Amino acid sequence: MIIGTHMSIAGGLEKTAKAVVKMEANTMQIFSRNPRGSNFKEPTEKEAEAFQRIRKENGWGPLLAHAPYTMNPASDQEKIYDFACMVLREDIARMDRLGIENMVFHPGSHTGIGVEAGIKNIVAALNQAITGKEQITVLLETMSGKGTEIGYEFEQLREIRDRVDHPEGLGVCLDTCHIFSAGYDIVNDLDGVVARFDEVIGLEHLKAIHFNDSLTPFGAKKDRHATIGNGEIGMEALLRVLTHPALKDLPFYLETPLEDAGHKEEIRMLREKVEGSRE
Ligand code: FE
Ligand code: FE
Ligand code: ZN
Fold this sequence. Notes:
This protein is an alpha/beta fold.
């Protein structure tokens, strides 16, 4: 079982890696730069090396970087779109150099121009950022569909993937809170949802799971994360996701509203439940 949580790297990469070990996690998600702004403190070579050593020694699974939320590559406003293009270009390259396996981003919101026009912008933004020579895989996140968000239907993600120049460099990160909120019934029909994903996108393109419960009910098209077992999805359904034959070997990233100590507990509780259910 590969499981970790979102970590702040404000104290440096090495310190963060040590905190992950302490948490008994074996992967992590980090922001590719400041989530709201534009800055990134380049890690020193020494720090990057220490970080790589720690992850190797502890046998971690794939790592995930998350692009800033403020970026919107679906936008038709020049300044907003250009910023998104710059961030995608720079952060994909930088996370690739760091040896991070995957980088996820929110496809964006069309803010009135329509899904089709939004997708066209997203595809162009990806084409100027992915060269085809990267080791890193860029992941589209499944969204809840709040506001004018794009990516709440598997078909929209497939369309983006179908239209980019380097589809081999593009995968998907499935967020359990978001798809439940978007109207995919992972509580009563997980097998059906997994089959649908396979049919529309292909399970081979699913690279990561954002593992969250949902504060808002099924199909609400909201995006409010809850801690595992304390939301509308519930413990039993989330354990079925964690142990599903088609999903269980993927890396799981908690984005639940907890501090490090709480995440350590959440990870321990999940490991206990999964190991218990295997007997
Ligand atoms: Fe996200
Ligand atoms: Fe997420
Ligand atoms: Zn979310």
